[in-house]
Amino acid sequence: MIPVNEPLLGEREKQYVIDCLDTTWISSAGHYLDEFEKRFSQYCGVAYGVSCSSGTAALHLAVAGLGLGPGDEVIMPAMTIVSCPLAVYYTGATPVLVDSEPDTGNIDVTQIEAKITENTKAIMPVHLYGHPVDMQPIMDLANKYNLKVIEDGAEAHGALYNGRVVGGIGDAGCFSFYANKIVTTGEGGMVVTNDAVMADKMARLRNLAHSPKRRFSHDMIGFNYRLTNVQAAIGLAQVERIEESIAKKRWLAGLYSSLLSDIECLVLPIEKSYAHNVYWMYNLLLKPGSPFIKDELMPQLKKLGVDTRSYFVPLHKQPVFEEIGLFTGENYPVAEDLGRRGFYVPSGLNMDEAKVQEVSRCLHQLLQP
Ligand SMILES: *Cc1c(COP(=O)(O)O)cnc(C)c1O
């Protein structure tokens, strides 16, 4: 079976982790945490990095760090992971959805303004599958209406929008370091920001919000979202290699695109003029008229030894939100369509040419017999 992803871990990761064990610095303080926060935030072109236990925690810290709560609205795409609305919901604020653009699957920036109300406080663009969101129109709206921008870069470490690293464009950039992400710590996350006050608040929220004046005195509702030095040791080794990882992803995508371009019922991923796509996962859409619908194709591919994953279920179709009456009666036809037709194929950093050829052979066998 060719898996959708496997983390690529090298000697450097091993060496740094052993150093943590040898020195007993295995908890939530230590040299690797400081170094990892510094290196990754610098890589994003931003002054501060606040590491935490997951990408979901990073999103929650950002929303809480901006002081959002009941009555406030945060605009986000309907096509994203549940972490985005959860992070908003945890604070008591309300997620508000916008449909996708058909070609990248990212939030349709032309539909955001219609969703802005007097309660809107922030926009949360999500850079899906490695392709950056068209950020300029979002930053213009943020200026016009005095809104904050929280980027979700969990699928796009190192992607560029007009030459700028994503996550460093808005007020805060959130990242996940889950095992399938371009930089991994096994589990982990980080918020990057240029706002010193917000960085300090998020660092305190991450660690139970101990008062700076007196430890074990608490003046905010904090969380335990701490990352460990051992996780950061892995992360530091990964950031040191990030350019290589991105080059590998781009090589993989180029190879897939050349091998699959003759399959008529597939839509291949693109790279817009403003974008440097890092192709986190090589994502495909099945055209109408394909011999199989996606839900039939994926198990067929599995039988041939190729694992795949589906696009997200759009947020307004999530049972948990239907149950609480969020997004009731709303329609996002492009997001729904992408959710029905979108999937991605094995894209791990240890894929080689033979494996890509095998995936391509299986897709040809099923879709272009
Ligand atoms: C993976 C991911 C997250 C969540 O990260 P976790 O570390 O699993 O909490 C958030 N947003 C997007 C877009 C993701 O792909």
Description of the structure:
The protein has helices spanning 11-23, 31-43, 55-65, 83-90, 135-145, 196-206, 229-240, 242-260, 294-303, 319-323, 333-341, 353-367; strands at residues 48-52, 73-77, 94-98, 120-123, 148-152, 160-161, 164-165, 172-176, 189-193, 266-267, 275-276, 282-286, 309-310, 342-345. It is of the alpha/beta class and 369 residues long. Strand 6 (160-161) and strand 7 form a beta hairpin. Helix 3 (55-65) runs parallel beside helix 4 and helix 8 runs parallel beside helix 12 (353-367). The mean pLDDT is 97. It binds pyridoxal-5'-phosphate.
Q: What can be said about this structure in brief?
A:
The protein has 369 residues and is α/β, with parallel strands linked by helices. It contains 12 helices and 14 strands. It has a 7-stranded mixed beta sheet, sandwiched between helices.
List the helices and strands and how they pair.
Elements: H1 11-23, H2 31-43, E1 48-52, H3 55-65, E2 73-77, H4 83-90, E3 94-98, E4 120-123, H5 135-145, E5 148-152, E6 160-161, E7 164-165, E8 172-176, E9 189-193, H6 196-206, H7 229-240, H8 242-260, E10 266-267, E11 275-276, E12 282-286, H9 294-303, E13 309-310, H10 319-323, H11 333-341, E14 342-345, H12 353-367
Parallel strand pairs: 2-3, 2-4, 4-5, 5-8
Antiparallel strand pairs: 1-9, 6-7, 6-11, 8-9, 10-12, 12-14, 13-14
This protein binds pyridoxal-5'-phosphate.
Q: What is the residue-averaged pLDDT?
A: 97
Number of strands: 14
* Share of residues in helices: 25-40%
Largest sheet composition: 7 strands, mixed
Low-confidence runs (pLDDT<50, min 5 residues)? none
Contiguous helical run count: 12
Shape: globular
Give every kind of bound small molecule, once each: pyridoxal-5'-phosphate
End-to-end separation in angstroms reads 22 Å
Helix-strand makeup class = alpha/beta
Task: Please identify the oligomeric state.
Answer: single chain
Strand order of the largest sheet: 1-9-8-5-4-2-3
- What series of H and E elements makes up the topology? HHEHEHEEHEEEEEHHHEEEHEHHEH
The radius of gyration over CA amounts to 21 Å
Strand content: 5-15%
